[in-house]
Write a structure and sequence with these properties.
about 280 residues
Length: about 280
């Protein structure tokens, strides 16, 4: 039987579009992997993930996981399309279907069990609050989220920060030294002023205002008094159209990828059979 050579009967548009799209995503996955690995390598604490809460409160681990998944899937897509490899195209096709089905199941479960989902999100936030100042990446992410969403804490708002060892009102001393952050909150809980320089002491007892000890009637003057879960829900409702469009776009790209992979695989199998028949006829 003669050796198979790539044939011009295969749709080159499908082949190169599939390759180009997956190659771009593959480059993106390499970048995500590098950022995540570097983030884990340079931080002082060791990587310790024992449950989903630990994973969801570790930005570097999330980047590595997403990067690894995209890397594997797009690798099969790139090689399968470029080399006209039917096995790799089948694997790529199956992986896309599995991911697509998992996404649908997660969406249905999130809608059906929205109450439990909110409790789960709060559990993640509470664990993040406890790890504040322990994990530098997580600390920066929490400060960014609270400033952007203009929120503070989880369900219990400012009072949630009492769960952090540095802001706990009972921890007036840490390592034999006076803890000036006791009963305070992070600066990201403060309402932004017109000053160009950020006052990182605004939420401390020794700063301008006393975070958790501030008279409840005056809290709204100095701090964001809404919890981050509440503000996140508000933001999602306000941007529901954009989010829905983005979700539809991602799903559409996945479906297109599945269809293109299936079509390219079908054409390659058909072409291989045609060449096999010709070779057998001339032997």
């Amino acid at each position: 039987m003669g050796k198979y050579h790539p044939s011009h009967h295969v749709n080159e548009w499908i082949r190169y579009i599939l390759y180009g799209f997956n190659f771009l995503l593959w480059i993106l996955s390499v970048f995500l992997l590098l950022v995540g690995i570097i983030g884990i390598a340079i931080r002082e604490d060791k990587l310790s993930i024992t449950n989903y809460v630990d994973f969801l409160t570790d930005p570097a681990a999330i980047l590595v996981a997403i990067g690894a998944l995209v890397f594997v899937v797009t690798f099969f897509g790139c090689v399968g399309a470029l080399n006209e490899n039917c096995l790799f195209l089948r694997i790529y096709f199956i992986l896309l279907i599995i991911i697509f089905v998992i996404e649908i199941i997660c969406g249905i479960l999130a809608f059906a069990f929205s109450g439990q989902l909110e409790s789960g999100v709060d559990e993640v936030i509470q664990d993040g609050i406890r790890q504040y100042r322990v994990d530098a990446d997580l600390t920066n992410f929490i400060d960014f989220a609270q400033r952007e969403l203009e929120c503070c804490g989880g369900i219990r708002h400012l009072d949630d920060w009492g769960n952090n060892q540095y802001f706990n009102c009972n921890n007036t001393e840490l390592n034999g030294l006076k803890n000036i952050e006791a009963c305070g909150v992070p600066y990201s809980c403060c309402i932004d002023s017109d000053e160009e320089v950020i006052n990182t002491q605004c939420g401390l007892v020794g700063g301008e205002h006393a975070g958790q000890d501030t008279f409840r009637g005056d809290r709204h003057r100095f701090f964001h008094t809404e919890g981050c879960i509440e503000k996140l829900q508000q933001e999602l409702r306000m941007r529901s159209f954009i989010i829905g469009f983005a979700v539809f776009g991602i799903a559409a790209l996945q479906v297109v990828g599945i269809i293109m992979a299936a079509e390219l695989h079908r054409e390659l199998v058909k072409e291989r059979r045609r060449h096999s028949y010709k070779d057998d006829w001339h032997t």
